[in-house]
């Protein structure tokens, strides 16, 4: 019988079933005439069931009591909470505290157990006590009904009447249960509001302080043309009282007042509409106007994002008056000259000729002064072309007259030409440095070792001619500098040291590392410099008092000083008369950075070896082409001289093979370049012909083009000793590479062949 009762049924159901079973058993026992074993067992079962029913009834009462006690305790706990809390089970309200219920008084009577969650949000959105929320209520409702947010918290901020603020947080603790929590954040919102208002007030104070301390007058107007802010300088410049410049004053009223006081003209008012249209289109307007009887103002207006505009006033009366005074003086002086000229022309019959000559001379003088710097900066290519040609021809002349009686004359000619070349280079360097700024200087990572070894190779001949020992201690550090200006600076210091050192003396080029900087130093045992001369030797055309006559015009150190100041390097000198000098350039070291290669060839001397190569020379200048051809043929080379790319390609067709090397000028005629000409020759022959680009253009662009297309770059006028070494090195390097490739191919073929 006990199996007739399902233990999973609620306690009340089980007790009711047991009572029915006991009653049935009792009726059955009463119908029996005798008490047999089966009846006794049935009665005994009924008694046991009755006892169990009594026990379970007692248990049920205990559970009911505990449930009511728990519910009462939960209600008391919810009532003592500072925030509002409500518990929804299966989408309907189970229990809530008084704060939750009384948040919105006009719907509190509807918040009773059994209220659906959707109905609660509908009541909340219709309440007159709800002022605003930071997000829509249906958004939170949809998030709760999506069945995808179990365990997640969804919240919103709600404002109710009397400036009270609450944060409502909802969380699904299970698919059936949802908890709503109300937390009052009124104090936090009000505190943040006060902080925001305080910051706004402080910003207004700062802005007002800036306005009041500006040297120019500043005023802002709204989009409708009403005054918003202005400083004291604005009132002072305009000469209007504070009562007229109150916030909210229309611009038209301000203009009418100024017109009534004769501070502006009627014409200015007529230009206002056009002025506003231009401001709207361009966003800014600048003009110069007359103010009052004797003042001139610069007016600049800028459009503000909200459609208003800002007006800035500057009093330029003194500037205008000064300009007028100067113009008057010029006019007076011109008038005096005109009268003097008229008096002179009255005395001489050649009036027209003299006036014309004076006018032409004046124009030429003015043009010469104004174009000096621009001419020297822009004409470097045209100036260096004939210099390069003359240098090549003199070199060839030296070679051909080596054993003749003309040799001393040619050597003097070469010395005079070298002085002229050095002077021209110095003038061009000064011109470039005068016109240069931080935007035109091209800085890169440069290894000092390449500079130092290159300078040693270039100046060893000069040192030998002076019987001076030149020692170079290479330095592998990398610095950030412009390679053209830095190389020129070090060259000038070394050349000066050799020039002013007596035969038998020594010159040393080296570096010292001091922390994050490196100091490049040039030591010499020369004539030295007096203390009073050390501060002025860097000026143009200035030399020390103990410098012998005919030893230069004093431009080399000026070039070094200008270049170092432009590059941010520190230049200094220490010297003692009769002992020697030390010139130093201090630069910052670049750590862990790759350097730009400077030397593009060997530094060993190969002057005795004949250049038994076929050399293609592409040069549009006839004299330079002739000079290069003569020099290369004296070195033993066979030269193909071309003025254009087309001529060079014809030589290739006639020759039927590529030349050993190409020497090309960068700037050719008709827009051609030596880079493109080299690429065309390589494409036609299908060979990576070695190439050297010889140019007067010292820009970083040309240097990078050369590196990009595997072309060494030399600047005009080219150092002939370096050119010879470079030609020989590049051709031999290509031959060695080709030989290595042939060995690899042959080895591979032999390895693949059967034994």
From TrEMBL:
Domain Response regulatory residues, every copy: 614-731
GO molecular function: histidine phosphotransfer kinase activity; phosphorelay sensor kinase activity
Catalytic activity field: ATP + protein L-histidine = ADP + protein N-phospho-L-histidine
EC number(s) stated in the UniProt entry for this protein: 2.7.13.3
A GO CC term assigned to this protein in UniProt: plasma membrane
Superkingdom of origin: Bacteria
Alphabetized Pfam families for the sequence: HATPase_c (PF02518), HisKA (PF00512), PAS_7 (PF12860), Response_reg (PF00072)
InterPro entries per UniProt: CheY-like_superfamily, HATPase_C_sf, HATPase_dom, His_kinase_dom, HisK_dim/P_dom, HisK_dim/P_sf, Sig_transdc_His_kin-like_C, Sig_transdc_resp-reg_receiver
Chain positions with 4-aspartylphosphate modification: 665
Annotated coiled-coil segments of the chain: 337-371
Ranges for domain Histidine kinase: 378-591
PANTHER family on file: HISTIDINE KINASE, TWO-COMPONENT HISTIDINE PROTEIN KINASE
This protein's name: histidine kinase
Originating species: Roseobacter litoralis (strain ATCC 49566 / DSM 6996 / JCM 21268 / NBRC 15278 / OCh 149)
């Amino acid at each position: 019988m006990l199996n007739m009762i399902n233990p999973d049924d609620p306690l009340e159901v089980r007790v009711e079933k047991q009572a029915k079973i006991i009653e049935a058993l009792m009726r059955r026992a009463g119908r029996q005439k005798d008490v047999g074993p089966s009846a006794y067992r049935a009665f005994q079962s009924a008694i046991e069931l009755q006892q169990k029913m009594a026990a379970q009834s007692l248990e049920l009462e205990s559970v009911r009591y505990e449930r009511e006690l728990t519910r009462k305790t939960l209600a008391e706990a919810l009532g003592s909470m500072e925030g509002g809390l409500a518990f929804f089970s299966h989408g309907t309200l189970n229990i809530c505290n008084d704060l939750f219920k009384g948040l919105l008084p006009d719907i509190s009577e509807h918040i009773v157990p059994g209220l659906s969650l959707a109905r609660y949000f509908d009541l909340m959105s219709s309440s007159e006590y709800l002022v605003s929320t930071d997000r829509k209520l249906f958004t939170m409702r949809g998030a709760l009904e999506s069945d995808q947010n179990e365990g997640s918290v969804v919240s919103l901020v709600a404002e109710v009447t009397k400036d009270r603020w609450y944060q409502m947080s909802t969380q699904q603790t299970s698919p059936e249960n949802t908890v709503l929590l109300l937390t009052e954040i009124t104090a936090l919102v009000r505190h943040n509001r006060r902080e925001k208002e305080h910051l706004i007030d402080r910003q207004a104070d700062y802005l007002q302080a800036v306005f009041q301390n500006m040297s120019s007058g500043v005023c802002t107007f709204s989009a409708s043309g009403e005054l918003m802010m202005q400083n004291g300088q604005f009132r002072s410049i305009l000469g209007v009282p504070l009562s007229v410049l109150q916030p909210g004053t229309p611009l038209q009223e301000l203009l009418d007042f100024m017109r009534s006081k004769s501070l502006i003209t009627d014409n200015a008012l007529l230009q206002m509409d056009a002025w506003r249209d231009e401001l709207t289109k361009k966003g800014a307007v600048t003009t110069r106007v007359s103010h009052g009887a004797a003042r001139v103002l610069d007016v600049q207006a800028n459009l503000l994002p909200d459609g208003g505009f800002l007006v800035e006033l500057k009093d330029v009366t003194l500037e205008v008056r000064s300009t007028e005074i100067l113009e008057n003086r010029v006019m007076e002086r011109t008038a005096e000259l005109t009268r003097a000229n008229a008096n002179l022309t009255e005395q001489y019959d050649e009036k027209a000729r003299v006036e014309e000559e004076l006018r032409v001379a004046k124009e030429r003088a003015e043009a010469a002064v104004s174009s000096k710097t621009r001419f020297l900066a822009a004409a470097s290519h045209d100036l260096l072309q004939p210099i390069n040609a003359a240098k090549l021809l003199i070199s060839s002349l030296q070679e051909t007259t080596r054993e003749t009686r003309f040799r001393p004359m040619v050597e003097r000619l070469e010395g005079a030409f070298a002085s002229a070349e050095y002077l021209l280079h110095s003038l061009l360097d000064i011109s470039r440095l005068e016109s240069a700024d931080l935007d035109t200087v091209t800085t890169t990572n440069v290894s000092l070792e390449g500079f130092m070894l290159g300078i040693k190779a270039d100046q060893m001949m000069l040192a030998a001619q002076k019987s001076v020992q030149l020692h170079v201690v290479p330095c592998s550090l990398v610095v950030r500098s412009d390679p053209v200006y830095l190389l020129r600076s070090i060259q000038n210091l070394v050349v000066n040291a050799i020039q002013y050192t007596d035969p038998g003396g020594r010159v040393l080029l080296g570096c010292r590392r001091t922390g994050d900087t490196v100091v490049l130093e040039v030591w010499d045992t020369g004539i030295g410099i007096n203390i009073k001369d050390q501060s002025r030797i860097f000026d143009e055309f200035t030399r020390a008092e103990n410098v012998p006559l005919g030893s230069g015009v004093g431009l080399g150190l000026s070039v070094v000083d200008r270049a170092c100041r432009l590059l941010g390097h520190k230049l200094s000198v220490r010297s003692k008369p009769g002992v020697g000098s030390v010139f130093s350039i201090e630069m910052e070291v670049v750590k862990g950075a790759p350097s730009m290669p400077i030397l593009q060839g060997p530094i060993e001397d190969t002057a005795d070896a004949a250049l038994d190569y076929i050399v293609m020379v592409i040069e549009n200048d006839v004299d330079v082409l002739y000079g290069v051809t003569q020099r290369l043929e004296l070195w033993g080379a066979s030269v193909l001289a071309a003025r254009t790319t087309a001529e060079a390609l014809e030589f290739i067709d006639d020759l039927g093979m590529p030349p050993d090397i190409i020497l090309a000028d960068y700037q050719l005629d008709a827009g051609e370049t030596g880079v493109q000409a080299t690429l065309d020759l390589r494409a036609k022959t299908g060979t990576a012909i070695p190439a050297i680009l010889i140019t007067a253009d010292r820009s970083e662009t040309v240097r990078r083009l050369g590196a990009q297309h595997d072309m060494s770059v030399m600047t005009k006028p080219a150092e002939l000793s370096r050119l010879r070494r470079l030609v020989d090195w590049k051709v031999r390097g290509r031959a060695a590479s080709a030989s290595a490739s042939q060995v690899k191919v042959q080895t591979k073929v032999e390895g693949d062949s059967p034994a």
